[in-house]
Structures are given as structure tokens and as C-alpha cells.
Write a structure and sequence with these properties.
The complex is a heterodimer of chains A (352) and B (302).
Chain A: E1 4-13, E2 16-26, E3 31-35, H1 42-50, E4 57-62, E5 65-66, H2 72-75, E6 77-80, H3 92-102, H4 107-120, H5 136-148, E7 154-158, H6 166-183, E8 186-191, H7 194-200, E9 203-208, E10 211-216, H8 218-223, H9 228-233, E11 239-244, E12 249-251, E13 256-258, E14 269-274, E15 281-283, E16 294-304, E17 308-315, E18 318-325, E19 335-339, E20 346-349
Parallel strand pairs in A: 3-8, 3-9, 6-7, 7-8
Antiparallel strand pairs in A: 1-2, 1-4, 4-5, 9-10, 11-12, 11-14, 12-13, 14-20, 15-19, 16-17, 16-19, 17-18
Helix pairs in contact in A: 3-4, 3-5
Chain B: H1 6-45, E1 48-49, E2 54-55, H2 61-68, H3 70-101, H4 108-114, H5 117-120, H6 123-134, H7 139-146, H8 166-191, H9 194-201, H10 206-235, H11 238-243, H12 251-259, H13 266-298
Antiparallel strand pairs in B: 1-2
The chains are: A alpha+beta (352), B mainly alpha (302).
């Protein structure tokens, strides 16, 4: 159980600044995702926490103790690499026991802990196999076991689900989540995939160009992003500029939207409204729609994903994406009415 | 399994025949040039040389005469000493260089070109450089005298033309360390840094990481590169001939002396020497490979 803090951390590689002044606090036992596009500095951040890189400025604290200068070997952290980095010339059990062997743990204790951890990751029957003889999910479990056997104070993972197929992904996600909860180990992982971040993490730190853009729970990040860039990165499609007045009305190019009670009486301003595609109701007749926040449009495209369907609905000059459970299929060219509840609309002030 | 039908069998046979036909050119070159020469050498060493008026075929008298003399074993020891020493030093230096090359350091891009330079320069030029630099009256001795370390260039310690063979080893290492570096560097690039980093995070020291993680992964590169340079070193002629300490000579030089003798019947003795070198070299390399295979099987690699 370790609390991890980054204070004013900056990392330069020659003239290139990978990380510019990041402050981050990860509570003990928390599972945090570092999310950002490739090249944003999230892996560098992870490598600095692990000790593989030394920050140019600032400090990294474990339980309020500065560890910025502590060499990797003594930092007692664990890292699961994206391509697992298993030792190809060692069998599964030698891979897993490596960390204890190099620390000079007595043989009987190694045996005992090896057995224990192989049971946890359900790899007992594969203990004499070599990495090349394992599937992706098995390799990842070896990598996790190899790390956990050393009882690290912080567990780090680089893109833990990226190399797995869809079915295995769900399995590994549940496995990692259950393991993390059971051991209560502070876990930090890096990903460029917002779905992966949301499905695993307690809190997500979004990093853009070496800056911490937002640090919040997945649902907050998804529903209440603090900038258009984050909204865009989190997969929001319907972002429109609007004029908001003091009465809580947002004037967009296609309709006037009534906003939630929080937005009333804040004076008139320019802002962006975000209409999440899954909170918009698609109606076939005007009669069944509530009076507020209903506007007409025409379905111009349809994408079928199995469980869900995306419709492109043209309203005025704008195109609005609506996501629905695929219980029905609306034909292209159909006249429809869209409705959105006022408190489901998220507003981002213009400056952001 | 289903029995193949005759037409399928015929097609299969045709394909095999076509494959053989395609391999024919390379097979014939190998058999005639390489195998033919080998067979002739062995025949001569066994006393078959009617064109010299010698035909005692087959007997082992030439081998007997050779292996019975004390100087043969001295020559063999010297040959092995130069070859093994140069191979070992090249290996250590080459691996260290390769390990440095996968890390970042200032001037790396320039160095990446620089270290390959000896690979493009012939051995004879390297030997000439050794004479110019390391000989008594060479650059180093003059510099040492100029700096006041010794009072006269002739007092400079003898490096060339001794049986310690530092000159020979220096030339081999100068040429072969870059070769080892080139091979190991390529292997290291393929292996990547991640397993090393994983080992470090798991608490391994530098030594533990190198010997338990990096070395086993670059071993195939080490084996193949040392195999090549050792096979060269044991049979190389120019460097020990020019920079060696005279009698007793290394085996290739001994063979050359027989071939160059006015008494051409000694050529058969030379052939026996050449065949001996081939036997010894292949024996050592075979043992080396067998040991490596055994290691690979022990760690479970097939």
C-alpha cells in the first residue's frame, strides 16, 4: 500500500521536453490510468515512476518519501511491459522466480511463493513451458506473476490490454481488476485507448503534450470533460458552438436548447455544447416528443455495430450522431425528431 | 492418410526433380572446387603425387614425420595460442562495444561509422600499420622517446616478432573486434532493451542482468561470430609470417615453407600440414558447436 505523488515533474530529452511540470497524486491502493495520444509523454511518466528514467526537475514521492534518486533495483516497483519482455531463454517458472532469485531469497521460500503465485495466475500446468509456447494472455499472466512475486509497492503496466483480442481482453480486464482489488496494490497503467482506461481505472489522468489535462473518475471525464480536446479524445462526436444567455438557453445553428438548472443566471457567453450520442432520443413522430429540446432532422447515414446502431442525422447545416440499442432499424432518408434532456447537455466555456 | 493417386505422385516427383535441377549449379561448384581440392589434398598428404614422381599411396608416413617432430607441437601450440587469444580479446571488446552502441552517448552517429573502418581495410594494410606503429623505431617508440619515457626508440619493448605474438594478436583484434561488434549489435537490436529493463526493475544488478538475461540472448551471435574469426585465425598466414617471432612458426607458415621449398617433394609434407590444420580446426569447432547445442538443449531451446 503506497501513495504515489509527482511534484512538478519535468523531463527533457536533449532539446525535446517530454513532460512539462506534472503534478499528480495517486492514492494508496488506487488504480489509475495515464491516458493520452501516442507521444504525449505518458510512457515517460511511467518510466520515471519506475525509475528507468530520472526526472530533469521535480520529485517523485512514495508515501511522502522522495524516491527520485533511488535506483531502479532498490525502488521495489513492478512493471508489466506492453510486449511482456519475458526472458525467452527461461521457462515460465524461471521467469517468475527471477526477481526472488536475484534478491537472494532462500530456495524453499522461492518454491513456496512460486507455487502460490502460479496458482493465482492459473499457470501451474504451464510452469515448464517457454514463453514462445504460450498464448498472448498466458504471456501476460506470466509477466504479471513475475512482477507480483516480488511484492512491489507499486504495480505499473504499459498498455495492458492492447495486444489481446476482444474476448481475451474482457477476461484479462476482469482478472487484473480482481487481482488489484484483492491485493490492494497501487496500480498505474498507461494507455492510448480511452475505452481501456475507462473499463479498468478508478481515476484517469489525461495527458496532452506533456501536460496533465484532466484527472478525474472515468464517468466524470466522459460526461463532464473540461475542454473540447478531452471531449474529442474521449469520443464525443456532437460538439457545437453556441451562444448561451442568462436564462439558460443555448442558441446553436440548428435549434435553441434549454440547459440544466446549473447554467441559469450565469450571464450570456459563447460556449460549446456537447450532446453525447447515446443520450439523444430518436423519435419517429413529433407527437410523442416532449416540448422542450426537440428538433427535427433527416437520417442520412447508418452504421450497424451489432448491439448498437449509429445514425447520422442532419439538422439544419449540422450533422448529429445518435447511438441507439439496435432494437429497431430506422431507414436512411427518414424524417425524425431528436430530443435531449436539459441536464444531459454539457457545456464547455469558449476559452477552454 | 489418403494414398496419393498416381498423377499426384508424378507431379510430386516432377517437383523434386525440378528442385534438384535448380540446385545443380551450386552443388557442382561446391563439389568440384571445394570437395575436389579437399580430396586432392588428402590424397597428396597420403603419398599420392605421381606428377612429382612420388607414389607411396596410401601411407601415413608424412603425418608420422610431421606429428613425430617436437617442433610440430610447438607450432600447434603457438597457432592455437594466437588464434584463441585474439578470438577471446576480440569477443570481449566486441561485446562491450556492442553493449555501448545500443545505449545513447554523444557522438554515437559518428562512432557508428568509425568502428566499421577496420572491416573495410585489408589485413595486409593492418599488418603494415602494426609495423609502422608498434615496431622498434615505429611511431609509438618514437613518441615514447620524445615524451622522455625512454631515452632511445630502440629501448622500446619488443612487441612484434616475438613468440608472445602481441603484434599478430593486435592486428587480429583490430580487424575482428569490429566484426564481433557488428554481429552482436545486430542481435542486440533485435533483442531490444526491454528484457534488461524488466530484469533491473525486478531487482537484478548490472552483472546479474548481463549474465542471466543479456548474455543468453546474444549467445547465438557470439557463437557464430567467434566461430568465423577463430576459423580464420587458425588458418591465417600473413600476420604470423610477417609479425611472428620466427622458428617455431605457426602451422600455416610451416606449411608455406614446405610448399616454397626448392625440394618440391616436400609439398606432400606441406599437404599433410594443411590437412592437420583442417582436422584440428574442424575438431575444435565441432566440439564448440556440440557444447553450445548441449547448452541450448539444457535451457530447453530446440
Amino acid at each position: 500500500m503506497t501513495k504515489v505523488q509527482l511534484k512538478g515533474v519535468r523531463k527533457d530529452f536533449g532539446a525535446f521536453t517530454a513532460i512539462e511540470n506534472i503534478d499528480l497524486e495517486i492514492a494508496s491502493g488506487e488504480l489509475v490510468a495515464l491516458l493520452g495520444p501516442s507521444g504525449c509523454g505518458k510512457t515517460t511518466t511511467l518510466r520515471m515512476i519506475s525509475g528507468l528514467e530520472v526526472p530533469s526537475f521535480g520529485s517523485i514521492l512514495f508515501d511522502d518519501k522522495d524516491v527520485s534518486e533511488v535506483p531502479v533495483q532498490d525502488r521495489n516497483v513492478g512493471m508489466v511491459f506492453q510486449r511482456y519482455a519475458l526472458f525467452p531463454h527461461m521457462s515460465v517458472e524461471k521467469n517468475v522466480a527471477f526477481g526472488l532469485k536475484v534478491r537472494g531469497t532462500p530456495r524453499p521460500e522461492i518454491e513456496e511463493r512460486l507455487q502460490e503465485i502460479l496458482d493465482v495466475v492459473q499457470l501451474n500446468e504451464f510452469r515448464h513451458r517457454f514463453p514462445a509456447q504460450l498464448s498472448g494472455g498466458q504471456m501476460q499472466r506470466v509477466a504479471i506473476a513475475r512482477t507480483l512475486i516480488t511484492k512491489p509497492s507499486v504495480l505499473m503496466m504499459d498498455e495492458p490490454l492492447a495486444n489481446l483480442d476482444t474476448k481475451l481482453r474482457g477476461e484479462m480486464r476482469r482478472f487484473i481488476r480482481a487481482l488489484q482489488k484483492r491485493l490492494g496494490i497501487t496500480t498505474i497503467f498507461v494507455t492510448h485507448d480511452q475505452v481501456e482506461a475507462m473499463e479498468l481505472a478508478d481515476r484517469v489522468a489525461v495527458i496532452f503534450d506533456g501536460h496533465l489535462a484532466q484527472y478525474d473518475a472515468p464517468d466524470a471525464l466522459y460526461q463532464r470533460p473540461n475542454s473540447i480536446k478531452i471531449a474529442d479524445f474521449m469520443g464525443a462526436t456532437n460538439i457545437f458552438t453556441a451562444k448561451v444567455d442568462a436564462s439558460g438557453q443555448a442558441q446553436t445553428s440548428f435549434t435553441t436548447l434549454k440547459l440544466g438548472p446549473d447554467e441559469i443566471g450565469q450571464g450570456s457567453r459563447n460556449a460549446s455544447v456537447i450532446l453525447r450520442s447515446e443520450v439523444i432520443d430518436l423519435l419517429l413522430t413529433a407527437e410523442e416528443a416532449p416540448a422542450d429540446n426537440t428538433f427535427a432532422g433527416v437520417v442520412t447515414a447508418r452504421e450497424f455495430f451489432g448491439a448498437t446502431v449509429n445514425y447520422s442525422v442532419t439538422c439544419g447545416d449540422e450533422k448529429i450522431i445518435v447511438t441507439e440499442q439496435s432494437r429497431r432499424l430506422v431507414e436512411i432518408g427518414q424524417q425524425v425528431w431528436l430530443n435531449i434532456q436539459p441536464d444531459r447537455i454539457w457545456l464547455i466555456p469558449e476559452a477552454a | 492418410m489418403k494414398n496419393p493417386k498416381p498423377p499426384e505422385l508424378a507431379r510430386h516427383r516432377r517437383e523434386r526433380l525440378w528442385m534438384m535441377l535448380q540446385l545443380l549449379p551450386v552443388f557442382s561448384v561446391l563439389t568440384i572446387l571445394f570437395g575436389g581440392a579437399l580430396v586432392l589434398a588428402v590424397l597428396q598428404s597420403l603419398g599420392f603425387a605421381p606428377w612429382f614422381g612420388v607414389n607411396t599411396f596410401p601411407d601415413f608416413s608424412y603425418f608420422g614425420a610431421l606429428w613425430g617432430s617436437y617442433s610440430f607441437w610447438q607450432s600447434l601450440a603457438l597457432t592455437l595460442y594466437y588464434a584463441l587469444m585474439a578470438t577471446f580479446i576480440s569477443l570481449v571488446m566486441g561485446v562491450l562495444l556492442a553493449l555501448a552502441m545500443v545505449r545513447m552517448f554523444p557522438g554515437k552517429s559518428l562512432y557508428k561509422y568509425l568502428y566499421k573502418l577496420p572491416l573495410m581495410i585489408p589485413y595486409t594494410v593492418g599488418i603494415a600499420l602494426a609495423v609502422i606503429m608498434l615496431g622498434n623505431g615505429g611511431m609509438l617508440s618514437r613518441l615514447a622517446a620524445f615524451a622522455g619515457l625512454i631515452s632511445d626508440p630502440s629501448e622500446f619493448p619488443q612487441i612484434l616478432k616475438t613468440h608472445y605474438g602481441w603484434g599478430i594478436i593486435a592486428v587480429y583484434v583490430w580487424k575482428q573486434a569490429p566484426f564481433v561488434t557488428l554481429t552482436i549489435y545486430a542481435v542486440l537490436l533485435g533483442v531490444g532493451r526491454e528484457t534488461e529493463e524488466a530484469a533491473t526493475i525486478l531487482g537484478a544488478s548490472r552483472w546479474q542482468t548481463f549474465f542471466q538475461v543479456t548474455l543468453p540472448q546474444i549467445l547465438p551471435g557470439i557463437v557464430s561470430s567467434t566461430l568465423i574469426i577463430f576459423a580464420f585465425n587458425i588458418g591465417a598466414f600473413e600476420a604470423p609470417f610477417i609479425l611472428g617471432g620466427g622458428y617455431p612458426d605457426t602451422l600455416p607458415v610451416v606449411a608455406w615453407r614446405y610448399f616454397n621449398d626448392a625440394d618440391y617433394t616436400l609439398q606432400l609434407q606441406g599437404m599433410a600440414t594443411v590437412v592437420s590444420i583442417a582436422l584440428i580446426a574442424s575438431g575444435i569447432l565441432f566440439t564448440y558447436l556440440a557444447l553450445y547445442r548441449r547448452y541450448e538443449r539444457r535451457i530447453g531451446r530446440n
